[in-house]
Amino acid sequence: MKKVQMIKETSGTNRGQGHRKRLRERFLKSSLKGFHDYEVIELLLSLNTPRKDCKQSAKLLLKQFKTFQTVLEASRESLCKIEGVGPANSLGIRLIKEVSDRYLEARIISKDVVQNPQDLMAYLKQVIGHKTKEVFVGIFLDAKNRVLTSKILFTGTLTTSSVYPREVIISALQHNAAAMIFAHNHPSGDVDPFKSDIEITRKLFFALKYVEIILHEHMIIGNEGFYSFAAQGLISKFNKEFDEYNE
């Protein structure tokens, strides 16, 4: 009886190893093209799980967190609550997310993102597009609109009382910024601006203008699309108001 059970366990292990090998060969042959989201997660889990089949854990992660992106955004504590996902696997998932964020940030450093915003949009969608809380990001630019750095300035529900122009100006001066771009996310996915979003942007535009720092853009990022204050004419409107106010 024990011998039969041992044969069954060995057979299951071999099947799991064969499946794992096929996943890796598919990736090496054609990257992630054709992979389901759960298969990508399964491949990640297999890096820190030498023998155990990871497919069920990968599917449980997607069931719990709904999307591939929110799996990557999940905390270590919440990841470890999923059966088959331990500290090593949760570290691997979090590391992949941070590495991809850094890679995309590196692609925008020293680039003119005003004239060529594609890399900036890819970075912002990756970093904040799928967060479950609102975050407000500042992109600091030099006089030629090249990115100096980016920084999360505020976290939590954004109101005019929770975003402080003084702190924004201090950060801009510390980074020797000549211009800025702002971005924040709407966890609901609806990228239309709230009244408070417009008020915050106007307030920051005026504050920066007084210290001769240009605000080029403020974007609201959702999990599918984005809203551009500049494209909708709001930045030009604030500039006109500023000029009229100071005549």
Write the layout of secondary structure elements.
Blueprint: H1 2-30, H2 37-47, H3 55-65, H4 68-73, H5 76-80, H6 87-108, H7 118-128, E1 135-141, E2 147-155, H8 165-174, E3 179-185, H9 195-210, E4 214-221, E5 226-228, H10 234-245
Parallel strand pairs: 3-4
Antiparallel strand pairs: 1-2, 1-3, 4-5
Proportion of strand residues = 5-15%
- Low-pLDDT residue spans: 6-12
Lateral arrangement of strands in the main beta sheet = 2-1-3-4-5
Radius of gyration: 23 Å
N-to-C CA distance: 94 Å
What is the overall shape? elongated
CATH homologous superfamily title of the largest domain: Cytidine Deaminase, domain 2
Q: In the CATH scheme, what's the topology name of the largest domain?
A: Cytidine Deaminase, domain 2
| Percent helix range | 40-55%
Give structural attributes:
247 residues; alpha+beta; DNA polymerase, domain 1; Cytidine Deaminase, domain 2; 2 domains; five-stranded mixed β-sheet; 5 strands; 54% helix
Explain what the structure shows:
There is one protein chain. The chain is an alpha+beta fold. It folds into two domains: 2-101, DNA polymerase, domain 1 (Orthogonal Bundle); 109-245, 3-Layer(aba) Sandwich (Cytidine Deaminase, domain 2), CATH 3.40.140. It is 54% helix and 14% strand. It contains ten helices and five strands; from the N terminus they run αααααααββαβαββα. The protein has helices at 2-30, 37-47, 55-65, 68-73, 76-80, 87-108, 118-128, 165-174, 195-210, 234-245; strands spanning 135-141, 147-155, 179-185, 214-221, 226-228. A five-stranded mixed β-sheet has the order 2-1-3-4-5. Strand 4 (214-221) and strand 5 (226-228) form a beta hairpin. Helix 2 (37-47) crosses helix 3 (55-65), helix 6 runs antiparallel to helix 7 (118-128) and helix 8 packs across helix 9 (195-210). The longest helix has 29 residues, at 2-30. It is elongated and about 75 Å long. The model is unreliable at 6-12 (pLDDT under 50).
